[in-house]
Amino acid sequence: MAKIFDAEEVAKHNTAESCWVILYGNVYDVTNFLPEHPGGSKIILSLAGKDATEEYDPVHPPGTLEENLHPSAKLGQVNPDSLVKANVVQEVEKAVQGPPPLETLLNLDELEEVATKQVSKKCWAYYFSAGDDLISKRFNNSVYRDILLRPRMFVDCTDCDLSTTLLGHKVGLPIYVSPAAMARLAHPDGEQGIAKAAARFGAMQLISNNASMTPEQIIEGSPDGQVFGWQLYIQKDRAKSIAMLKRINAMKHRYKSIVLTLDAPVPGKRELDEKSNFDRSLTVEVGGKESGEKRPGGGGVGQQLFFGTAPDLTWAPTLAWLAEQTDLPIVLKGIQTHEDAYLAAKYAPQVKAIILSNHGGRALDTAPPAVHTLLEIRKYCPEVFNKIEVWVDGGIKRGTDVVKALCLGAKAVGVGRAALFSLGAGGQAGVERMFEILEAETATCMRLLGAKTISDLGPRFINTRRVERDIYDGDSGLEKKGLWSKL
């Protein structure tokens, strides 16, 4: 029979010499684990002697305890009557007030506004934050306003078909969920809730390497034909990446691509996220950083997620190594220049698609929005569109944004923060509401333009002159001898 501890007894073990924590009603001695914790020992010590479940649960996939702690670390159970209870009055008041009905929320900004009031400050700071002065984050969206639409008349717009294909797989929408980490910070439904919402609309979901649920859990119960991709951050310890790829290879009936992320080899400086972590009360389970190692620029959630990420990737060696680990199609995420788009196309057919992205403005501030890179490709190397699929993400708020990107040659458009905030606004139902809004707005835009299908869309439906004046206008680089040999 398990030993029962009073919370008062557990509270005495709050030092580096004797560190106990309560998780899910169980008492653990984590003293020996302190120097091994990837996020550093200080974060655990800030919760020493306390119930850490609320801080731990949203950011650790199930099985983390079993993988990292010896069975002997579990000492017993805590007497629930001895635990200090939360402020019940405050919780009741919050429940009575509650969020507005989802059907009254008419756009993605309203979903984000509701989520901001629902989620924790740390969750909001991690989702909302971006690099430095948030210039790229804001520009990702505002650039779409400078593209004008050119509607055609006398077109039968009775019907509108939003279905398309991605990597040869039929999907119901040209809108996919971008890799978005730590979904359970927003709502217990987590990444699986997003998956269930996406299934209802036939939308593809790219799963974050730093998801708060396991890849197996996320696809559990998903219908036949639902399409997922797995985001990969290659680790310094390649064995960890190899082990994960083996798991994904075993689920090819759902995971149809590997999304190799390139635009964040090191973490950007996200000040809101870093400030939210000054109290050291939140950590995430990632690998590769020794306890006590100094973290340049701070220690927010984003900083912790990057611990162990390999910054030494190069074209030919990395793609050759990846080909040894999986035969799934490769999608390169984070392309931001026409030169790299052209070079990526040279690696077809292993590379099947690229995602034009600046990491949601969360990496290098003042990096270009996807729209600029789309226009660069059209100007300098339009043949890329014929060799590989081009997807985009960043700044999508309206159906008109979706249509404008598709008119420029994008095959699909991703939403990341919008999915997380919608999850925070109402769990799975909130994400379904997001898809409802984007689906309706996209269809309305196409019908008013005079386009019946996704394949009808093209440059003739848009005026990009106001944006073209700002795109790169230097040497193409494509004619330089030897540059386009596989590096």
Concise summary:
With 487 residues, the chain is an alpha/beta fold.
How would you describe the overall organization of this protein?
There is one protein chain. The protein has 487 residues and is α/β, with parallel strands linked by helices. The chain has 2 domains: 4-82, Flavocytochrome B2, Chain A, domain 1 (Roll), CATH 3.10.120; 118-265 and 309-468, Aldolase class I (TIM Barrel), CATH 3.20.20. Helix content is 37%, strand content 13%. It contains 20 helices and 16 strands. The chain has helices spanning 7-11, 41-45, 53-56, 64-68, 88-97, 108-118, 121-128, 135-145, 190-201, 215-219, 238-249, 271-276, 301-305, 315-325, 338-346, 370-380, 384-387, 399-407, 417-449, 465-468, and strands at residues 4-5, 20-23, 26-29, 74-78, 148-149, 164-166, 169-171, 175-177, 205-207, 228-232, 255-261, 330-335, 351-356, 389-393, 412-415, 462-463. The protein has an 8-stranded parallel β-sheet. Strands 1-4-3-2 form a 4-stranded mixed β-sheet. Helix 9 (190-201) runs parallel beside helix 19. It is globular. The termini are far apart. Homotetramer. This is L-lactate dehydrogenase (cytochrome).
What is the CATH T-level topology of the largest domain? TIM Barrel
For the biggest sheet, the summary is: 8 strands, parallel
What's the arrangement of strands in the largest beta sheet? Answer: 8-15-14-13-12-11-10-9
Shape assignment:
globular
Secondary structure tally, helices: 20
Radius of gyration: 24 Å
In round numbers, the mean pLDDT is 88
The structural class is alpha/beta
EC number: 1.1.2.3
Domain FMN hydroxy acid dehydrogenase: 100-467
GO molecular function: heme binding; L-lactate dehydrogenase (cytochrome) activity; metal ion binding
Enzyme class: oxidoreductase
